[in-house]
Amino acid sequence: MAGVNYRVTGLAGEAAFFALLSLPPFVLGLLGVMGHLSGLLGQDSVQEVKEWVVNQSELLFTSNTVDRVVMPLLNDVLNGGQVSLISVGFLLSLWSGSRALFVYVDLISIAYGLGETRGIIRTRVLSFGLYVAALLIGLVIMPILVIGPTLLSNTLSRYSVLVSIFYWPVVVAGSVLMLTLLYHVSVPRRTRWWRETPGAVLALIIWILCAAVLREVLAAWFKPLSIYGSLAAPIAVLLWLYITALAVLIGATLNAEVDRLWPRNGTARHELCA
Questions:
Q1: How many domains in the chain?
Q2: CA 68, CA 8: separation in Å to the nearest integer?
Q3: What are the distances in angstroms from CA 147 to CA 86, 131, 160?
Q4: What is the 3-state secondary structure (H, E, C) of 100-142?
Q5: Which residue from 145, 211, 241, 270 could staple onto 16, CB 3.0 to 4.6 Å apart?
Q6: CA distance 103 to 11
Q7: By three-state DSSP, how is residue 269 classified?
Q8: Residues 6 or more apart from 201 whose CB is under 8 A from it?
Q9: What backbone phi and psi angles, to 5 degrees, belong to 3?
Q10: Cβ atoms < 10 Å from Cβ of 186
């Protein structure tokens, strides 16, 4: 079976681990860019995202750590001068944060059986470019996702009906589009982008179902008197990243199998043999 041949579960664990390590640089990098563009994005949007990050941090760390480490760090990132945007530290955080996307790009190539086609330098540069693009897209998407459809409807009162109707369909369609583009760019050989859509749809469905199941399981495991104690939140984050990686890789496996069974014009295997 494809899942066994491509070691999907083990590769998903690898991707989840590096995604966990890359999460702080990604969040700090995103907040840093938002801080410099607060005049364009609006101070309220930046504050909403900051409060969301603080709330999530309180699930992972003690109150003392949040007050003495997380809050000062967020304030420094959001209130830093323009020079810090191009500082060595900021560039290093970008490079570190792109590690997770590097793993995804590499593993999607492995799923297609093309893991050795693209060199490590090209893969690293590609993942860095994708990471920067993700930061720029996150500047627009993250505030909208954080405030949710209710607050967005209140903010755009004149269009509240349209927001209520189209909010989730747009989120779902946007998620499928982003996954499709990730698959399309990650494959070493250029393919027709629409051929990656089945895997993107499957990945999103699997992620939604697994996330719903994981939520119920975590609610049962990590009760107030759970033996896991303060480890509950980090374990939950790692499991969430794992099912995300698993869904993405299963979608890539489906696309690879379709590519293998029907290697027509516009498929990776056809382009490789051309």
A1: 1
A2: 40
A3: 29, 23, 14
A4: HHHHHHHHHHHHCCCCCCCCHHHHHHHHHHHHHHHHHHHHHHH
A5: 241
A6: 9
A7: helix
A8: 176, 251
A9: -65, -35
A10: 25
Give φ, ψ of 66 to 5 degrees: -65, -45
**Token output for 163:** 């927001």
Give the residue from 234, 194, 197 showing the smallest Cα distance to 218. 234
Contact 267, 191 (CB under 8 A): yes
Residue ranges, the chain, pLDDT below 50 = 1-4, 81-83, 85-86, 270-271, 273-274
Question: Tokens at residue 183, please?
Answer: 């698959």
pLDDT score recorded for residue 4 = 41
Specify the pTM: 0.74
Per-residue pLDDT tens digits for 64-90:
767 776 777 777 767 654 445 445 656
Residue ranges of alpha helices (H) inside the chain are 2-5, 8-36, 38-41, 43-60, 63-65, 71-79, 88-97, 99-111, 120-155, 160-186, 197-221, 232-261, 268-273
Res 2: pLDDT: 44
Alpha carbon distance 253, 21 (integer Å) = 25
For 169, residues 6+ apart whose C-beta sits below 8 A from its C-beta are: none
Closest to 163 in 3D by CA, of 144, 135, 142: 144
Sequence letter at residue 203? A
